[in-house]
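Entry for the shared binder. Reason: the reviewer on the internal report wants the predicted structure included alongside the sequence.
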Amino acid sequence: MSDVTDLRSTIIPKSDQLNAEQLLAGDTTITVTDVRMGSEDQPVILHYENDEGRPYKPCKTMRKLLIFAWGEDGRGWIGKSMTLYNDQAVRFGGMVVGGIRISHLSHIEREISLSLTATKGKKAQHTILPLEVVTLSEVLAAISSATDRNGMNAAKVKALKLIGEIDAQKAQDAYNARMKELRSGAPSTKRQTEQTLLSAAAVEIIAEIDKAVDVDVLDLAMDGFRGEESLSADDMTKIEAAYKNRREVLLGA
């Protein structure tokens, strides 16, 4: 490896789970792709996009918080997102060791504040903020409709909220292409023109396709979309293209 522009990969501990030390460089936002039962000590295992074999195994305090916010059925957690950080004040065995804590959750309507047991006989307040989840379709739409620097800046802010390196790279590529067009005074891209011709139903369907985190769920949803009589031939062409693209992303993840 000769690229020294990002050295964070050199400090990742050899472990079978996400480690608090990996978050020393900053927070991370993950999207849950699978929920499994684990051992007695770590009964819940959360797999997420690009976890590279290091799933998040929340401690008991964070499990209580997740159940309170998202419900007791782990199947309902799939597709939802959270922001994790290293709380360096966490103690274990009388020593300050640091630990993974949750700061934001998607799919909650308002701030959550809970008093949960921290150590024997003592409680600590945990505050969780709503996490705004932005889809790739929303970002691409913002980029393609931007006509000046303000519009591009707004699209960039939205793109920074994307979760996942693949979607982020696609947004970056679209952003660079649109900036080039605006600088040259070229007309809107063909994709932008085609998007404005889509029906509202097609736009919503494509947004749902982009949110899919499981191939089986994606295929099942697509079967239902194909039977929608209100969609035009042009709508279905664009929907099929979005489906094919998302399926390739999920299979390659």
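Summary line for the report: DSSP finds eight helices and eight strands in the chain.
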